[in-house]
Write a structure and sequence with these properties.
two-stranded antiparallel ribbon; three-stranded mixed sheet; 3 domains; globular; 7 helices; about 210 residues
């Protein structure tokens, strides 16, 4: 086992962030911290429900992209690929012809992860149907799909109170991570998904909603 618990998945992140994660792990407070920041849960716990969710997202944003043959949770993904999600083309011989079928596998830990975490990894792998490289076009597509998540206009409706997006340039090679500010792929400053506008919207919304508390 690595002496640094952040080495496997967070190697390219800022030293300050990794230090914070190591401290939370050492103090036994990582799960508590994540629960507090992301209390929302989802009911997409079966392979069938995951397939339906991914296909609904694909049909909404990427109808012309190639078909998906399989979508499932994989309990060994982090061991076999050291990844949280994969998008692969599995080639099989059918009628003397070689055919490739695309599959998306999501690490099983996302069955019980916050809804935002599952959506993040699903959008990432789904975007690879159209954009294979982690380039500007890829992250612009991810941002576009995330921006189309349902928001609610009043208490009782389904959806999020507000959604903000931050795009980072992470080459996963040990170099420092930088914040992407150009649009695209980052949301435009005038967009409701710009992170600063997102924070202001939430502050105004909650100040009104909880004014009498």
């Amino acid at each position: 086992m690595s002496a640094d618990p952040t080495a496997k998945y967070l190697a390219a992140y800022a030293p300050e962030l990794r230090a914070q994660v190591r401290r939370l792990i050492a103090e036994g407070r990582l799960a508590e911290s994540l629960e507090r920041r992301h209390p929302e849960r989802h009911d997409i716990t079966s392979d069938g429900a995951l397939y339906d969710d991914v296909m609904a997202l694909k049909n909404r944003h990427m109808r012309s992209a190639g078909p998906l043959a399989k979508v499932l949770y994989d309990s060994r993904l982090h061991l076999t690929h050291q990844a949280l999600g994969t998008h692969t083309a599995v080639s099989r011989l059918q009628g003397g012809r070689l055919k490739a079928k695309r599959e998306i596998r999501i690490a099983s830990l996302f069955r019980e992860a916050p809804a935002a975490f599952l959506r993040m990894i699903v959008v990432h792998e789904l975007a690879h149907l159209k954009e294979r490289a982690h380039d500007r076009a890829f992250y612009a597509l991810c941002t576009h799909m995330l921006q189309k998540l349902q928001c609610r206009s009043k208490v009782g409706d389904e959806g999020f109170d507000a959604i903000g997006a931050v795009v980072v340039d992470c080459k996963n090679d040990g170099t420092p991570i930088t914040l992407a500010t150009a649009s695209p792929p980052a949301p435009a400053p005038s967009s409701d998904f710009d992170y600063s506008r997102f924070v202001r919207r939430l502050a105004q919304l909650y100040a009104t909603r909880f004014a009498r508390i």
